[in-house]
Amino acid sequence: MDSFNSQFLYSVLIIALGYILKRTNLIKEQDGEGLARIIFNLTLPSLLIVTFHDIEIDSSLILLIVIAIVYGLIQAALGLFLFKNEEKRTKGMLSMMAPGFNIGLFAFPLVEAIWGKEGLKYFGMFDFGNALIVFGVIYVIGSIYSDAGERKDLKHVVGKVTKSVPLITYVTVCTLNFTGVTIPSVILQVSETISVANMPLSLLLLGIYLNFSFAKGSSRQIIKLLSLRYVVGLGIGILLFMFLPFESMFKYTVLIALILPMSASVLPYAVEFDYDRKFVGTVSNITIIVSFFLLWGVGTLLI
């Protein structure tokens, strides 16, 4: 438990450092865009290579992918139903924010610090299914209800998915693993060196993007959206934790994954589809704060 609390304290300090650097103008929020590209296209893929090159895939890990996809579809459907009486564009924006989780930037640094490669293995498999929701379902919802330009066809959506470097890395490394192809040691060694930077950079980025300037006049929508994400997520997570007949790490993964923050990809989608990016950014920040304290609470009780 002391180790768990210590890791959370270290994470809070690194996030706070990123926020202080932004507030003192030593780093600007715009600099976060370049840092995010480095994380998503370099340090995170490197971490995935190191974690998954020799992983033994069993049925429980495959089930994590299924859970992530099914839960994402359920949340998308609930979002469309809950916000059905909202104006068309508002309905699309809110429904787009209901499914999907920020696993790469938010969960991976904490999981790596607390459980190491074993934890990353489980959360990585969940993130595989989550990526299909984020780059497929969420993008489609945002596109359908947007008035910004022409709606994107299936070809465009598929193209968006296939350009995700983390998703490509998942598929490539797992395929090589299944077929028994060994990744050259030099690639593994370079990847391991680069992957060390993923945790501190990701936490710094969360601090850089943290913003306490919340939009006014939209508290009702925010409360409904947060209730959908956290009440449903925590409820289903607890049920699965209690009744799934798998090892503790599997149960921790499901319970924690379902209360993670909103996907980081939603904000770029809001820009692309001309939604209210300030509102989306506000809710994204709130979910980071809520999830952080929820995870600390869950961890304190269970670990």
From TrEMBL:
Q: Does the keyword Transmembrane apply?
A: yes
State the UniProt keywords alphabetically. Answer: Cell membrane, Membrane, Transmembrane, Transmembrane helix, Transport
* Any one GO BP annotation for this protein: transmembrane transport
Bilayer topology annotation: Multi-pass membrane protein
Q: Where in the cell is it found?
A: Membrane
Please name the Pfam families in this protein's record: Mem_trans (PF03547)
Where is this protein chiefly located? membrane
- What are the transmembrane regions? 6-22, 34-55, 61-83, 95-116, 128-146, 167-188, 194-214, 226-246, 252-271, 283-302
Q: InterPro entries of this UniProt entry?
A: Mem_transp_PIN-like
One Gene Ontology cellular component term attached to this UniProt record is: membrane
Q: What PANTHER family does this protein map onto? A: AUXIN EFFLUX CARRIER FAMILY PROTEIN, TRANSPORTER AUXIN EFFLUX CARRIER EC FAMILY
Record protein name field: Malonate transporter
